[in-house]
Amino acid sequence: MREPVDLRRQRILAAVQARGTARVRDLADELQVSVVTVRRDVEELTREGRLRRGHGVVRSTLPAQEAPAREAADGDRVAVVVPERHSYLTETLHGARTVLEEAGVRLALHIAPQAAGAERPLVERALADGARGLLLAPRWNSLAVEEADHAWLSGLQVPTVLMERRPRRGSAPHLLDSVCSDHWYGAHLAVEHLVELGHRRIVFATRDDSPTARTLRSALAEIAGAHPLVEEWAWALSTPESGPEGPYSADETAELPVLLHKTGASAVVLHGDVDALMIVQRLAAEGGRVPRDCSVVAYDDVVAGLATPPLTAVSPPRAEVGRIAAELLLRRLRESAPGPTRRVELLPRLMVRGSTRRVDTADGDVGDTGAEPGTIPSNE
Fold this sequence. Notes:
The chain is of the alpha/beta class. The protein is built from eleven helices and 17 strands.
């Protein structure tokens, strides 16, 4: 999902003001946009008198005494730990970073490799370097890995906020602050959208290797199982490598085209975007047409809009999760006495695009959704 121009320019301005000077190429890498895009933004901010341009660098126009203080002697003020190669959390990270930099708080990013318990040594290193607060998104690809982290997480002595992670009720780290998307509501949006279009048989294909994936699987099963208009539904792994928990039944590891045919399903909900794009490509290679033969809803909306056709998708508020988590952490750092634990839930949206269409349940004909691409249904 493309970031609004004004927001991107605010982030550029905050980054430059926090450092005094920044390279254009570094800004492009951090914002995940092209160098040309950053140059255009910098030119506009320069015309407004908010930045000064140099050869490949950008400088703040604030006098030295107005620039956010950088207390090197104190080490890193706040550490952020996220999993490597996790595109979903990239936007969350940017949301947090914008808030912290605007507040003049130093940030150190730590990337956890794909290994059980990888976050703990990074957190210990950050604390040794002087971090006064933590924003964490542990990978937790299985329940066993999550439970193994409970003891050290509950023993942290600095303000800590979990992003898109919520420990199970009653567990030791249940008292940690957390900011999450309401994935039950996201599942509700997907099912209701398809049912309103006349789909009565639906396949759900999700990952099973993160707290989000497990929550989403459970929510889809609960909602579809209780829905009076859903005649049949089935769940399967979106890809064989996306489910470390197991064991799974034959249907739960079946190829999606096979399961769609077996259940007579006319729609599928997939977590996440890349897996949804792959199944659309596979259906096309086998002569299937999306949405005429099968409606597809993706879950994540990181790259869903770039598909052909653009995919209808549930879009969690990724950047807002990071922003609110950072604001909560700053509040904790400034409190004279600790307040009650805060658990914040934000509602996803449904972005209706070209991969879902109406089904006439009487004769199986397919029609238009009745919504313009990119619109949000009125039931939100």
